[in-house]
Specification:
Elements (H helix, E strand, L loop, with lengths): L6 E5 L2 H4 L3 E5 L3 H5 L4 E3 L2 E6 L2 E4 H8 L8 E3 L12 E3 L10 E2 L12 E2 L1 H16 L13 H19 L9 E7 L7 E3 L11 E4 L5 E6 L5 E8 L5 H11 L2 E7 L6 H9 L11 H14 L3 H15 L4 H5 L11
Parallel strand pairs: 11-12
Antiparallel strand pairs: 1-2, 3-4, 4-5, 6-7, 8-9, 10-15, 12-13, 13-14
Length: about 325
């Protein structure tokens, strides 16, 4: 259907595109209608040869215009993909720099900035955890928006606790807890026991001073305590071994991040905008980090995108030598 001379309407498909249209130049209408176009986060897209292609980029390709990394719509309507409404966004004169960490962990006399590499590592850890719980990031049947928001914020806090992705934040209450394990008295003698099991201890008295060995999974005896005096009391030896073989568990408790509520509601109502182009797990990971840093979610997304774009450039090898890894997309 043509409303205006030279302009064609493209009916959108799918649950979110029902009753909505995109605008294109009439000269591109036949090529555009050869595909089914859907709506996602305010933009129209199609699957072409297995790849997701946005309508604005498709129009530029049909017009033989070089496609930039970012496209702006002059009238702010992302469904208006007429060529005259598409503006090639100029790249920023300077890439986004590190983000100020307003609540650093530990004592910092100076302002603490979180490097893009640290931000990248944190986002990947959170995204991996949330990606395994992707279905929990959806609005469930008959679930009100308020309770759903609280449920997902709680999930984000759980992700922070389980992954320890925000080790740099002083908002969490970090606690090191020592876990001791019950120990059987070590076997004593110049030769090891005949039928040991992994974890068994042996006080080797074949030389002076004595040593205590532990039988490992590789079926060998490793030294866990040396320089044991022959007259050392048994209770003192067991206390030393208990301390030596204990585990340290780091626990962290996070305050409820109320700043995350708005971003979660945008996610549940499919209004994430450009920040959500990499999916809900990536969006929620970036929103959680933004809440910890008192920053905008889009700011976190831009820093990560620029950092990963740099890694995929020809100079990536030099950066990889400094221990940096990643890719351009948050995928």
């Amino acid at each position: 259907m043509i409303e205006t001379v030279g302009v064609a309407e493209i009916a959108l498909c799918g649950r979110y595109g029902q009753g909505k249209v995109a605008l294109v130049d009439e000269r591109f209408a036949d090529a555009v209608r050869a595909h089914k176009w859907y709506l996602s986060n305010g933009s129209s897209y199609a699957k072409i040869t297995g790849e997701t292609v946005y309508l604005s980029r498709y129009i530029l390709a049909l017009a033989a215009v070089p496609i930039p990394s970012r496209i702006d719509h002059l009238n702010q309507d992302r469904l208006d993909c007429r060529l005259e409404n598409l503006k090639l966004a100029r790249p920023a004169t300077e890439p986004p720099g590190p983000i100020l960490n307003p609540f650093p962990r530990g004592d910092h006399d100076r302002r603490h900035y979180l490097s893009p590499a640290e931000l990248d590592q944190s986002e990947r850890a959170l995204r991996a955890y949330l990606g395994k719980r992707r279905l929990q990031l959806e609005l469930q049947a008959d679930e009100p928006l308020g309770p759903a928001t609280g449920r997902i914020v709680t999930l984000a806090m759980e992700a922070l606790t389980r992954t320890r992705a925000a080790w740099w934040s002083g908002l969490g209450e970090w606690d090191a807890h020592t876990i001791t394990h019950p120990l059987l008295p070590p076997y004593v003698g110049p030769k090891p026991p005949r039928f040991p099991r992994p974890g068994d201890l042996w006080r080797d008295t074949s030389g002076l001073p004595h040593v205590v060995r532990e039988y490992g999974p590789a079926r060998d005896w490793g030294v866990v305590l040396d320089h044991v005096r022959p007259g050392m009391p048994r209770h003192a030896l067991r206390s030393a071994l208990s301390t030596l073989l204990s585990d340290v568990e780091v626990r962290v408790r996070w305050p409820r991040l109320t700043a995350l509520n708005a971003d979660v509601q945008l996610m549940l109502t499919n209004r994430m905008g450009p920040a959500g182009q990499n999916g809900r797990p990536a969006y929620l990971a970036c929103a959680t980090l933004a809440a910890l840093l008192a920053a905008e979610t889009q700011r976190v997304v831009e820093v990560l995108a620029d950092y990963r774009r740099t890694l995929s450039s020809p100079s990536a090898e030099a950066q990889a030598a400094r221990g940096l890894t990643g890719s351009q997309r948050l995928a």
